[in-house]
Amino acid sequence: MTAQDDRARVRRAAVSIGLTVALTSALIIAGGVGLLLAVIVLNRRPEGGDHEEGFPRSGGDDDFVIDVDRILPAVIVLGVIGVVLLAAVAWFAARRSVRPLGEALRMQRNFVADASHELRTPLTALTSRIQLLQRRHERGEPIDETLQELRTDAAMMNDVLSDLLLAAEGGASARAAASVDDAVASAIQSVQPLAFEAGVSLRSEPAGPLTVTLPPVTLARVLVALLDNAVQHSPSGAEVRVRAAREGGTAAIRVVDRGSGIRGISPADVFERFSRSAESGRRRSFGLGLSLVRDVAVRAGGSIEVESTSDAGTTFLLRLPLAS
């Protein structure tokens, strides 16, 4: 969403609120005036009708008088009701006027949290590679390959930031397509340092020519989130596998770990923001990774679910529409 879109949205909200306040206030005032006229009509009497005999009349038979002591309580009650109703209208208008601001603040907080989470895994991998580079340099071993991997990690971080900004602005290309095998290979390369430190091996099964309607960097960061989650919850010496296959008009991508399963929370709830299972893994989890995976999958017309979970491990199933 661009700044021009934001300004247009604010203008529409201002016009809507102004019309609502004006129409509601007009109805309240018209209703109050109508009630006041009704009270006056019901409490009128012919002039001199209630006076003692012989009281002089100043007009004809069609003249009427209103006793102030009868009308004044009704006027006061109507005035109080009008003030209360207008106050309610002002409260409602204030709530509606700040709603876009509240939504903007919520989106800002979500973006900061999402960006921090999405950069957390690449930064951790980058730190691991730097430590490996330092050890190889001290031992006099070749470091060209590690330097190339560092450049790849830095490029991946730049791509992730660009993808997040495009998603925040609603500018991600709906026609972009990504190869599943290429995205899996890129994700495994990004998570490999973390898996090595945890003593977990990563393995993928080639899917063949599968292409999905999602930008390559977006698919890669979705798979990084799934692999990172699997590595965190896998014991040392275990294996995390990625399998992809064509199922109908979708690409079904499964990430299988050999952890202890999802505990302390419903499998459907792991995709909610800031939700965490009883076993949080080796590193502190903020409960955002799987929520981001779900958001991306839904925007792309796909889905993510826990296909199975038990003491023998958990399988996440990501479905994405195939590119035409």
Radius of gyration: 34 Å
Q: Name the strands of the widest sheet in spatial order.
A: 4-6-7-9-8
CATH fold-level name of the largest domain: Heat Shock Protein 90
| Shape field | elongated
Protein architecture, described:
The protein is 57% helix and 15% strand. The chain is α+β, with helices and mostly antiparallel strands. The mean pLDDT is 80. The protein has 2 domains: 3-109, no CATH class; 173-321, Histidine kinase-like ATPase, C-terminal domain (Heat Shock Protein 90), CATH 3.30.565.10. It contains 6 helices and 9 strands, in the order H-E-E-H-H-E-H-E-E-H-E-E-H-E-E. Helix 1 (3-43) packs antiparallel against helix 2 (68-139) and helix 4 (180-198) packs parallel to helix 5 (216-232).
Secondary-structure topology with pairs:
Layout: H1 3-43, E1 44-46, E2 64-66, H2 68-139, H3 144-169, E3 178-179, H4 180-198, E4 201-205, E5 211-212, H5 216-232, E6 239-247, E7 250-256, H6 289-299, E8 303-310, E9 313-321
Parallel strand pairs: 4-6
Antiparallel strand pairs: 1-2, 3-5, 6-7, 7-9, 8-9
Helix pairs in contact: 1-2, 2-3, 2-4, 4-5, 5-6
In short:
By secondary structure, the chain is of the alpha+beta class. The protein folds into 2 domains: 3-109, no CATH class; 173-321, Heat Shock Protein 90, CATH 3.30.565.
